[in-house]
Each structure stands twice: as structure tokens, then as C-alpha cells.
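Before the break, one more example. Copy the sequence into your notebook; we will annotate it together after we see the structure.
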Amino acid sequence: MLRPERTIGLMADGEHTAAERAVSEFRAGRPVMILNEGQAAFVIGVEAIDDKSAAQLDAVAAGRARLVLPSARLRRLGLDRTLPGSLAFPDVDRARIEALALKVDARADAPVAAASAMDLMALELATISLVLPAVLVIPVDPAAVAGEVLRVDGEALRSYRLAAAQVVRLISRAPVPLEGAQDTEFVVFRGGEGLRDQVAIVVGKPDLSGPVLVRLHSACLTGDLFGSLKCDCGDQLRGTVGYMTENGGGILLYLDQEGRGNGIANKIRAYKLQSQGYDTYDADEMLGFDLDQRRFDFAAEMLKQLGVKQVEIMTNNPLKIAALTRAGLDVVEERRVHGRPTTENVLYLASKRDRAGHFIDLEELVAHRPIDD
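Here is what the structure looks like once it is written out:
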């Protein structure tokens, strides 16, 4: 017979499992039914809507569909909004959906209602699914719905991100010698949002009894792997490992948080907008994102499981410093990490400094490392 506390644990795991299944369905482009306080609604991301599905959804909606957008996108539609809202869709019109969700010069074409609890849950599902934060919501009678549609309780979605972001498990570890850093170990954790794999790279033999050199590095496929000139991520990554190698070792956390937590697809959408002259944060806002979607709770937990108590952090980002401090780690020193300024990334670096408060002395960087022609 199970003890009561074990039964409670199983129930909590069941809620997380339901949320994770909902994420999988939503990312696959299939509608999910959210249940909340006796109400139910189909929710589907706008990315998944084509002409065929729009016609099918229109038949189900019977004039009751609404498009839910975050405050960032509403501001780009010409509204002074700090909270999400919804626009009524008497007809599920794909062209209108795409314009309101993505078009650069679109403007709100109807009154915007305050987002309901159901609407906020739908946006939360989009956020943790790493898709565009624009969702079609269609109220339904769950008893009248036939067919296999995944159902998820709204409370499971509400609690999932906070709970999941703090839970990581060490899965595997092995020595992986790197060029210029032969004594290096990769430690793989599983957890955070979406149960993604997160990697701690232990460089050398850091002394865990004192402050440990630490960097929280969000994955950047374009910069880290392909050497994109649009950012300084690759330089920061390799520079950090080199510095740790020469200074007694350290731990670099390589976190699956592409595009400031927006996902690779949305990052590339933002890059397209940047190519049209918008800065990195304006581009994200056009897609419905605020300055930064990342959480670092699980990063602090990874460090704790590795035995770290005091941190000498290598970052320019005040959010990372604050997150580790809130998690109970002692941040005893801060070190800045800079890459080379280029013609392609100088606006990006200035935007991070001016709009997100990153500690970047761009003038000094340019003075000591001239911009590449």
C-alpha cells in the first residue's frame, strides 16, 4: 500500500506529464483542449493554421473564435497595452490571423478585450512550446467533442513552468578533451522547461571549497557553431573556456535557451526582421516577445548538484547575477565577457547595453579591438 506522501508525489508527476503531452501536441500543430473551472476551449497556435484547418476550425467555432496576443505584439499593432488581449474572429480568416500575428505594419482592426484566464493559459502553452506566441482560442462543450483531442487541466499549465524549471537530474558524465582545454568533463542534466538536456562543462579541477568561475551560456546555434557575425556568443563561449583553463578551472553551463528562450524558429524570424533594419529587441517585440523569456532557476540547481556554493560569475547580464543570488548561491565577484565587435554586431551589442542593461563598454571595446571591415 502506498504511503500518502508518495501518492501526492505521483499526482504531481501526473500533472506535469499532462502538461508535457500538451506541449508535444501543440508543437505538432494539433489543437489541445484546455479545461478550467467548468469551461473548455480548443487552442491552436497560429503557425499550425493553413487553409484546410482554418475551414475546419471555422465550422467548430460557430463565430466564437478569438485570437489571443501578448502585450508586446499588441503594442506593435498600435495599442498602449501592458497585458495580453484578444480580438474576436466571427470567421476563422487565415489571412487576417497572419496579418495580426506577424505582419510588420499591421494595426489592430477590432476592439481588443482583456485576456481571460483561459486566454492566459493558451499563451502559456505557446510559451513553453517555443512557438509563436499567438493562439486561436475556441470555446467548446467538452461533452460534445468527438475524436481524439488531448485534454489538459489549466492548473497543470499554470504550475508547470515554475515547477519544472527548478527540477533537473544528472543523467551522464564523461571526460571530453577540448582543443586548448584537455582536462574537461561534460556533465549532462535533464530538466528545466520541456525536459531538455542541459550541459555543464567542467573545465579543469575547480576548487569547490571556494568561489568557482561560472558562466551561464545560452545556446546559440548560429554564433557558437557557425560563427555568425551578428552576435558575440561564439567569442564569449570560447573565451570563457580559455580563461577558465588558464585560471584554475571553472564550470560553463551550456543551456538550451536558443534566442533568449524564444526557440530557434522564432530567432530566425527575428533575424529576418533585423535584416530589414530593426534591432534585436524590436524584432522580438514584433513577434510578441518581451525582452527576455529565459529562466535560470534550473541553472542554479545544476551548480548546487555539482557542489558549488560560491560563484565568480562571468557575464554581462544582470538577470543572471540576480537569478543565482535569489537561488541562494553566493556571488562573490563578477567578471565581464566580451567578444569582438564587428560591423554586423555593433548595433546588437549597443541594444543589449541600452535596452537590457547589459554591462558592455562598447566604446572601450571598439577602441581596443577595431571593428572588422
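DSSP finds 14 helices and 14 strands in the chain. Residues 1-12 have pLDDT under 50 and may be disordered. Try to locate both features in your own notes.
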